[in-house]
Amino acid sequence: MSTPAPALPKRPRGRPRKTLDERDEGNRRRQLVRAAARLFRRKGFDGTSTRDIAAAVGMHSGSPFYHFESKGALLYEVMEQGMQAAMARQQQALAEGGDAPALLRRLVRNHFETLHGPGADFIPVMLYENRSLDARQRAGIARLQREYEAPWLPVLQALADSGRLRADIHLARLFIFGALNWSVQWFDRKKRATLDEVTDEAMVLFLPPHRQRVTA
């Protein structure tokens, strides 16, 4: 009689457990994205090497290519993740509700937080390094920007309908974003007003208070 073959070990149910390297993949990618955002903002895309990014997170110079196929792919990831986080924060801000002036103030305040709060490096990178993306990547970021800006139009329309805003809402949106985004050039938490104070001043510019006419 032949000796029976040993029974094979039973396969565990459910998804197979991830290896240590697989579990670390997400953490390393996040570290690379954060480091790349800081360096791209400070040194520019062209002035930042993959070696610089690797050194910032304690990797060997070629290791980032295990996580991203190119420096351009890492640049796109910086912008995409930043926009996704900004849209999530904006959605939370709008969920509180309120009338049109209150909603505009909340949108402005939230955008200032996106520009100057934690993890804000991606905005200057997106504003000034867009030319470094390829056509497909630029189209993807443009789509995210449209999604982010879309909730502003109903608020501006409500303000126009009530007479508080007398400008064309599409031009008003462009002017507002142009003014807010330019603050990345001059705002300094240590030297300037707080974000709440800057928001108050912005609202005076964008939405002057009503002046009641005095009748004789």
Instruction: Please summarize the sheet with the most strands.
Output: none
Mean pLDDT: 84
Helix and strand pattern: HHHHHHHHHH
Radius of gyration, in Å, reads 24 Å
The CATH superfamily of the domain at 72-206 is Tetracycline Repressor, domain 2
Stretches with pLDDT under 50, minimum 5 residues:
14-23, 212-216
Strand share of the residues? Answer: under 5%
Please identify, by name, the CATH architecture of the domain at 72-206. Answer: Orthogonal Bundle
Helix content: 55-70%
Distance between the termini: 119 Å
Plain-language structure description:
The structure is a single chain. The radius of gyration is 24 Å and the shape is elongated. With 216 residues, it is mainly alpha-helical. Helix 5 crosses helix 10 (195-206). Helix content is 62%, strand content 0%. The protein contains 10 helices and no strands. The protein has a domain at 72-206: Tetracycline Repressor, domain 2 (Orthogonal Bundle).
List the helices and strands and how they pair.
Elements: H1 20-43, H2 50-56, H3 64-67, H4 71-94, H5 100-116, H6 122-128, H7 135-149, H8 152-161, H9 169-182, H10 195-206
Helix pairs in contact: 1-2, 1-4, 4-5, 4-6, 4-7, 5-8, 5-10, 8-9
Keywords, separated by commas or semicolons:
mainly alpha, single chain, Tetracycline Repressor, domain 2, 216 residues, disordered C terminus
